[in-house]
Amino acid sequence: MKTILIPTDFSATSYQTIDYVIELFKNDHCEFYFLNAYTFDVAGLNAIEMLQADDDWFDEPKQESINKLGELVERHTLKSNNLKHEFNAVSECLKLVDSIKNNIDKLNIDLVILSSSGEKTMTITNQSILAKIRSCPILIVPPQASVCKGLQLTIASNFKQKINTSDIDRFCELLTNTNFKIEILVLENQNSLSNEVASNLEILIIHLKKYIITPIELQYASSPQELKNYAQSHQETVMCVIDKKPDLFRKIGLFKSKVISTMEQLRTNTVLTIHQ
């Protein structure tokens, strides 16, 4: 049984994401956790007003969260005829990033699902989650994403470093009962690959062969525009990008991950982020 965490703000976009993920993993035994993290709106309140607030003021956000999560679980439980799927709810008064981090550990989560806006710039919330959640792969789903009959996972990297396959393994294991194929997109010029890049590619290909029987195809994109063109011509492909281990400057907030700019070029694709 695989465990999948899906944060929701009860928007139409988040509901579309839930439908997509349930369809994506329809052939696998999955336990879905719908997470709603809420906080109290204290803007404009001083300390005395906070102390004077009645119980209803504190209970209202909690009760609203619980009620809407209950409706969400009930809706999917009733309409699902898939005995492989179970649906659960988690409501917490906590910042979203902290709540996701806590539940990854507590529930032994295999995959976190986020909704994207589909806009040119990634939301601050998603940027924060990508920066701070590194113990689990994250799948980011754009609006109106659809699952095609033959799912393809494209792993995009320059392969200058040996790929840590643990997050890729966790995702592929979720698709063990799915007829999917793997393609590798090398973000380098095909005619000038170093020996190190070629070696890292070979190691990864050998490792991935245990998941599929079809050949693993290699494609090349040596510029951001070529990457964007590839993504636009493979709308139903899950694009896998690799986030490098953060250095000191990134840890203290002076720089953002380069994976953010890469993902903004893939905003119309479903994107899997894995971590070195």
TrEMBL record:
It holds the Pfam family Usp. InterPro entries: Rossmann-like_a/b/a_fold, UspA. Transmembrane segments: none annotated. CDD domains: USP-like. It comes from the Bacteria. Residues 1-121 form the UspA domain. This is Universal stress protein. The lineage of its organism: Bacteria, Pseudomonadati, Bacteroidota, Flavobacteriia, Flavobacteriales.
